[in-house]
Amino acid sequence: MANKKPKILLLCNQRVREGYISPDELERMEAFANWDWFECEGGSIYQAHENPETIRQLCEQVEDVDGIVICHGAPRVGEEILNRAPNLRIIGELEGDRFAARIDLEACWQRGIRTVDTTQGSSYPVAEWALALILISLRNAGAMFRQIIAGNPPSGEEKGKNQKMLYGKRVGLIGCGHMGRRLIKFLRGFEVDIWVYDPYLPGEMAEAIGFVQTSLDNLFSQCDVVVCVAPLTPRTEGMIGKRELDLLPPGSTFVNVSRGKVVDSEALIERLKRGDITAGIEAFDPEPIPSDSEIIHLPNVFLSPHFAGLTGDDHPHFFRLMVDELERFFRGHQTWFDLTARSRANREGREPEHVL
To answer: Is 123-303 a CATH 3.40.50.720 domain?
Structure first.
């Protein structure tokens, strides 16, 4: 029948079913699709389990399935399962597995099956906190707070020192994925000049979104604020070291909301100890920050405990984004969060120039 609803199968463990799949979003999905849940346990955040009995049982459940959503506990959806799912048109990773260990991407692409993921669901709240850290750091509010709790509130003259507005500044983003693009939206109201370093971006994005695409050295040496929103990959680990941090001009601000290992921690501490820049650090290596780390006592840094991805909601936002994707797809629209050769190269840290 032309009006028959597609069938979507959720593959995940009990914890995901109870903690991630909100009743409201299930109700929204029921407006355009039928769904079922296949409970499965095993594996880890970056590893699918390969229990033959689970795969055998799953093969019996996928013959009439149009879409599959996978998450923690799911087996790898590969040739054996795909061969038993002739109607399958879309498969989505809900959260956690940035490297698609639970999806045989090549096998899906060969069959014309759309592959998406909503792992970036945590990027949206982190982008909010990135904006907060920019504002806090530009005013060196961490130093003011330290003085207040030490019983030595800053004087009027002290409060007037080193205070900077965000309005009209030049902000450089290291990375322009989902988090970076969200942050750009937040920054627009401050009428800032936005520069971006991201070798994986399609060339036309700079003109479409409205930013200057530039080199990492230009970013560090010529921006008032530098924000790291790059993912941790083999290519980005240790990418920001002494050489890059030494390029930061006096009076500038550095913010890291990505992963601690992207930045050389010792080099960051040494740069901050010179006292002529400020920083907002959400992610540090190692985590948690050691109690004897010098960075804790530096007055020109504001620290937060890598908590920005948490929202306080009953359910994380990953499933909401997945329902959005499924609705777009089954209503005949283009999806937003496709897993492609380019996105895979980015996450695996491979050279972008070799990606079609």
So the answer is: yes
